[in-house]
Prior knowledge:
There is one protein chain. The chain is mainly alpha-helical. Helices cover 65% and strands 3% of the residues. The chain contains 30 helices and seven strands. A three-stranded antiparallel β-sheet has the order 3-5-4. A two-stranded antiparallel ribbon has the order 1-2. It has a two-stranded antiparallel ribbon with strand order 6-7. Helix 4 packs antiparallel against helix 5 and helix 23 (501-515) runs antiparallel to helix 25 (527-538). The model has no long low-confidence stretch (mean pLDDT 92).
Amino acid sequence: xxxxxxxxxxxxxxxxxxxxxxxxxxxxxxxxxxxxxxxxxxxxxxxxxxxxxxxxxxxxxxxxxxxxxxxxxxxxxxxxxxxxxxxxxxxxxxxxxxxxxxxxxxxxxxxxxxxxxxxxxxxxxxxxxxxxxxxxxxxxxxxxxxxxxxxxxxxxxxxxxxxxxxxxxxxxxxxxxxxxxxxxxxxxxxxxxxxxxxxxxxxxxxxxxxxxxxxxxxxxxxxxxxxxxxxxxxxxxxxxxxxxxxxxxxxxxxxxxxxxxxxxxxxxxxxxxxxxxxxxxxxxxxxxxxxxxxxxxxxxxxxxxxxxxxxxxxxxxxxxxxxxxxxxxxxxxxxxxxxxxxxxxxxxxxxxxxxxxxxxxxxxxxxxxxxxxxxxxxxxxxxxxxxxxxxxxxxxxxxxxxxxxxxxxxxxxxxxxxxxxxxxxxxxxxxxxxxxxxxxxxxxxxxxxxxxxxxxxxxxxxxxxxxxxxxxxxxxxxxxxxxxxxxxxxxxxxxxxxxxxxxxxxxxxxxxxxxxxxxxxxxxxxxxxxxxxxxxxxxxxxxxxxxxxxxxxxxxxxxxxxxxxxxxxxxxxxxxxxxxxxxxxxxxxxxxxxxxxxxxxxxxxxxxxxxxxxxxxxxxxxxxxxxxxxxxxxxxxxxxxxx
Length: 643
């Protein structure tokens, strides 16, 4: 049963159907409230006793256990006798509340406030408005104990800040009149909050009430001086100066311009207009650069936009929509192979429908889509599409189109091992092209490609320079995903140092945390265990991975070594015989190294020969380092071991 708990007001709980649970007496509620205030941490029974009674009676510990048992019956009425509680659990010396974060109104409130901090005004307003609606009265309203007072004061300060930030969001949305009532009430009740005074004056000014705005600032100055003996802060003083000059600080900023433009677009461009689809592609391209949920949404809606364009039976429009999403791609494994396959099929259909009379720009873009989205797909078609797109783009003299085509060429340079120099040349051309024609996204791509290639060639000084250049561009142009790759590169740099095993493990862990929520499952899944496996093999350490480790797409190559580490030699030999040839991607060399190490350990001559043949062209490279994410050691060392 899903339970909801409320502490932003009197302490209450509700079941899944919305019916209020019988929490019994005030001390039962106090136990639940105290566990909520602990935010999921264990509260020892002794602490609960001290928090419930100023002078604990004899048998207080037993009473607490009785309260907990009653709460468990109320919260989990269907739990069978002698089965462990799921929500209010016993841990060590005390109890903890184990519910989802969204089950408690105070936790939801704090999460919404935190999410709103980095959100644009429209999203911040939605989050903060919903957060304030959670409140039913003073937090922990039933209790006067010290722990409740501390938590109530903390939450109330957070609530006041949320009121201010919600008002600020309203100003950003061009709705100042809606902000005035809440701000007026806030400064009346809490006259020391200078930010509330500032926002109130600004809201009044933007509603055309300049005199009232200046009067508010004078009142703020007088109250602060009278009650606290201090001058208003610099932001208040600067606002007063600006308003006297009739200058609106931040007026007509990006949020207001966006809101006005979006409103005009909705009123002008019909909902069924094909122009909406082309405009959508531009928005999705910008959204993808934000990473996280932005990238997820961009990829999902891109596929939906392509499908919508195809339904309009206009092949030229479909070509522009399919080819307009030219977001650079650095990783050779798709985040969603099935979705990529659908986009490739749509591009091929558009090419077929346009026929030989297709405009060369449309053709080059569609072929680039085929090349980029077919990353890791076997067969000659993706490489042929990449080569033809490059030929067309060079003939057209369109730098952005050529950059897109080169991205496709890069994705198809994994037909064999040992091609780091070829990829380095592609990266160098992208960097130069992007610098001449102000293409920052492709400049970052070029630097990341060169970072990968120089790492494979054991030129870490050169790779360092490209990592730094990529970071500078990402900060300048707000491309947060770049840091995922440069942080992983720096972790790999540590791993490449023979004496820094513990430091490398820690660095990989930090880098892996950057992937959480980045919106790149094709990069994330299995990468950390693979990096740690390669590291432990290099250092001759026990592998020691949990049985439930998610190896993602790399499991089949890791399995023989994992079985060997556990002494299961026959199973390892069987697993090795079933190991397929690695796909052509950034980790091909690393997968061959895993296969080769297992083959040597098992004396499998056929696999040793296959590995030696595959890795011979990369004899001067650092295996796996071409990914810019991990290293499996020098290829030459393995070739020597293979004989």
